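#lab-general

N.A. 3:47 PM
ok so I finally got the sequence cleaned up, no stray characters, all 176 residues accounted for. can someone with queue access submit it? mine expired

B.Y. 3:52 PM
send it over

N.A. 3:53 PM
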Amino acid sequence: MLRRLLALLLTVWALGFAGFAAFQPQPAPIAKADGIIVLTGGEGRIARGLDLLRDGVAPRLLISGVDPEVKPGELAAEYKMSAALLACCITLGYESVDTRSNARESAQWIKRHGLHRVRLVTSDWHMRRAAWELRQTIPADVELTEDAVPTRPSLGILFAEYSKFVLRRLWHIGKG
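B.Y. 4:20 PM
back already:
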């Protein structure tokens, strides 16, 4: 009986992983928002957020998870941001160190600015967990658009992210 249960659980997990790996989130169509949130940690994320800001998709941008050693001027130089754009429209979030704290930092920023339509930018493989974590911290009436940056993740990255996603959801169910 125990073997069958373990086999069933392994099969469900494997099928879930196959779907997770095969059907990655995609970039979202361009639509106006009140703010853009970019989670650091992957190639193309900050550039995507800045392009959206420069294109007028939203008037403000939060870059969550900035390393405390990164200075605003260094970031501006690397991404060719003007000092005026950085000063008026970009918040550098230094408080978060993982996806859960990204969500808390982002929720505080959303509340502080009274935002109702927010665009979340992160890597395709990270989007499901990041969006889920953010939805746990923001009011239900905040509209969240998931804008995934396409990548070519390794099987190891997908395996780790799927495992984190499933375990986090199970932990939340068990807690609630």
